[in-house]
Amino acid sequence: MLWNTVAQTVELGWDFYVPVLIFVALIAMAVPVWAAIGSSAILMLVMSGDLPLSLVGERLFSGIDAFALTAIPLFILTGDVLVRTGLSRKFLDVAEALTCFTKGGFGSATVLVCGMFAAISGSDAAGAAAVGRMTIARLVEAGYPRPYACALVAAGACTGILIPPSIAYIIIGLVLGISASTLFLAALIPGLCILFAILITNLVVNRIYAYEGGGNLTVMEWLANLGRSLKSGWYAFIVPGIIFYGIFSGRLTPTEAGATAVVVTIMMGFLLGTLKWADFPAMLVSSAKVNGVILPIIAFSAPLAEALAIMGVPQGFVTSATGLTNEPWLLILLMIGILIAAGCVMETTPNIVILAPILQPLAENIGMNEIQFCIMMITALGVGFITPPLGLNLFVVSGITGESILKIAARAVPFVLCMFVVVLFIAYVPAVSTTLLPEIYK
To answer: Which of 23, 74, 145, 157 has the fewest CB within 10 Å, making it most exposed?
Structure first.
């Protein structure tokens, strides 16, 4: 196959297709993603001879030798400490007090607490597990069918990678050379759009099927209930307050904000008597396991990305796509389709490190702001968390409840559709991603 670029002709041969086919086969056989990427990258380098194998080890370490990546284990650890200290339940109490005046109030509270947890941990799977354990049984008691309750938690937890601080934005910022703080600021409005889209979808579904009643409080009763919840749990919001103020004011980098959040959360746990020294080994091991999944993928993706760049794959993809159509709106739809399809079969981290360098030149070619492209990409990939066959959040809530993944996925369809609408909104309206940014980024 020949892809003609303006400056050169890119010919992709077996040195490209064989590693790609092997990568697909390894993923299909449930080989760990980092091993599949590493094997394919090394094979591609051997077959093409584009990069000496003696440099592979150096690229593995240089790929993760970035100060920004230090923020990832810190945010993961913060989320783990938050759950173990019981502070996450304070979020649920306040969220429930905020929404108890409407029908479907506890369903709305579940979505809100997912967003609150996302504003600290930056991880969707952690949010699905933590919020699911707190809410699914109560959602069923309130009248929601168990599969729908699971789907609601899985959808709400998608905000884990969409609302800053997000691990996904740290990774894509590293891959494309963009400040994570800038991406966090740009992602705030789109992340909230996703949150409220899921919340409104739940209210509409609840209105149609009358799963949950409620909403009989007067204004004074609602305010009194909210006041009691805030009085008993206001201190839980110190942690997200530190993260948001520190990052968005420019006083703290994401790494510094993550470190501060860990220290403050641990201190609060000791002061409340809900955390003990004996809890630390389990917390550290749990966080290390999650971090140990992410960093090897980033490390092994570095030589692969370099090989693809040397072979001219990104430029070839741009030419191939623009050869199909010159209409920017169709090319945007093409990118969204690729991202959602990729998100359905593979985790976010490998999708970012593999697809971002390939798709970003196409986005630039049609005039899309690089910040807008990043927000669109992460949001589109987020749809895959509640879409089979991978659907990571579906597996998490299924593991908690024992409910069938297919039943949960069927009830998640309205949330998939509402998230897709928001993806289109982000893709075609640049202001959604750039409104909060300084003029230099617009």
So the answer is: 145
pLDDT of residue 51: 67
Q: Given pLDDT bands bounded at 50, 70 and 90, which one contains residue 11?
A: low
Residue 114 and residue 156 in contact, taking contact as beta carbons nearer than 8 Å:
yes
Biggest CA–CA distance in the chain, Å, is: 73
- Angle separating helix axes 219-233 and 87-99, nearest 10 degrees: 170
pLDDT of 114 > 60? The answer is yes
C-alpha to C-alpha distances, 400 to 118, 281, 394, 427, nearest whole angstrom: 19, 23, 10, 34
Cβ contact 345:389 at 8 Å: yes
Q: In angstroms, what CA-CA distances link 166 with 141, 169, 348, 420?
A: 32, 5, 12, 20
Contact 86, 308 (CB under 8 A): no
**Tens digit of each residue's pLDDT (9 = 90 or more) over 16-63:** 888 889 988 888 887 888 888 888 888 888 887 766 777 777 777 777
The token pair at 168 is 């996904």
> What is the distance between the alpha carbons of residues 34 and 40, in angstroms, rounded to a whole number?
10
Long-range contacts of 257-264 (CB under 8 A, 24+ apart): 257/71, 257/165, 258/70, 258/71, 258/74, 258/75, 258/78, 258/165, 259/74, 261/74, 261/75, 261/78, 261/120, 262/74, 262/77, 262/78, 262/81, 264/238, 264/239
- Residue 392 pLDDT > 60: yes
121 in Cβ contact with 75 (< 8 Å): yes
Separation CA 420–CA 261 (nearest Å): 33
Q: Which two tokens stand for residue 203?
A: 């209210």
Please give the model's pTM, rounded to 2 decimal places.
0.88
What integer pLDDT is reported at residue 416 of this predicted model?
A: 96
Residue among 390, 377, 424 nearest 193 (CA): 424
* Token duo for residue 197: 């889209």
- Cβ pair 120, 156 in contact under 8 A: no
CA–CA gap between residue 305 and residue 261 (Å, rounded):
33
Supply the DSSP string of 176-217, one letter for each residue: HT--HHHHHHHHHHHHHHHHHHHHHHHHHHHHHH--------
Rg of the chain over all Cα atoms, to the nearest angstrom: 22
- Which of 12-21, 50-59, 139-148, 283-292 has the largest mean confidence? 139-148
Task: Tell whether the model's pLDDT for residue 161 goes beyond 50.
Answer: yes
